[in-house]
Amino acid sequence: MLDKKIHLELTQAEPFLKRLAQSYVKDRVKAKDLYQETITKALTKIHLFKPGTSFKNWSATIMRNTFINDYRRSRKYNIEPLHDYPYIPERWNNRNQGEINLAVEEVNKEIRLLHPDYQQIINMVGAGYRYQEIADELELPLGTVKSRIHFARKKLSKSLARA
């Protein structure tokens, strides 16, 4: 049986968590699944919750980690090319879509010319992975990941400046 205080915090956090799930996953059914999985994990790990902290933030962290883990599990090493991402930076909103497509294609062309180790890491960075997540996923030391990202960006910068 749930403690009354936990039940109250869960009830108060529900609308926020449902909106957060919807922002992570655009599909309504998948968002509902993500929300339910988050609540299940939160309730099974409630003994790890520190009283006096924000239950809403704690459960949001659980949701974010669940979403990331599910995403990784479904895409294990099948990283999508950068131009398939629906997100367009805010500063590009006033540009012509054709210009954006050409710029993204030029960047992707240069990425494909990089050494495969650099390609994979740059694509993972583009997919939103953090450096430590990349290191864990590829089973590399964090320093190696950082140096590969540095050198890949340097090479991309030089080749794009020439283009």
Structure classification: mainly alpha
H/I helix tally = 7
Name of the CATH class of the largest domain: Mainly Alpha
Proportion of helical residues: over 70%
User: What is the strand tally?
Assistant: 0
Percent strand equals under 5%
The main β sheet shows up as: none
By oligomeric state, this entry counts as: single chain
> Distance between termini?
65 Å
Q: Which topology of the largest domain does CATH recognise?
A: Arc Repressor Mutant, subunit A
Tell me the overall shape.
elongated
Structure summary:
The chain is mainly alpha-helical. The chain contains 7 helices and no strands. Helix 6 crosses helix 7.
Please explain how this structure is put together:
With 163 residues, the chain is an all-alpha fold. The protein folds into two domains: 4-75, Rna Polymerase Sigma Factor, Chain: A; 82-162, Winged helix-like DNA-binding domain superfamily/Winged helix DNA-binding domain (Arc Repressor Mutant, subunit A, Orthogonal Bundle), CATH 1.10.10.10. Helix content is 71%, strand content 0%. The protein contains seven helices and no strands. The protein has helices at 4-24, 28-44, 55-75, 97-112, 116-126, 131-138, 142-162. Helix 1 runs antiparallel to helix 2 (28-44) and helix 1 packs across helix 3 (55-75). The longest helix has 21 residues, at 4-24. Residues 79-93 have low confidence and may be disordered.
Secondary structure topology:
Layout: H1 4-24, H2 28-44, H3 55-75, H4 97-112, H5 116-126, H6 131-138, H7 142-162
Helix pairs in contact: 1-2, 1-3, 2-3, 5-7, 6-7
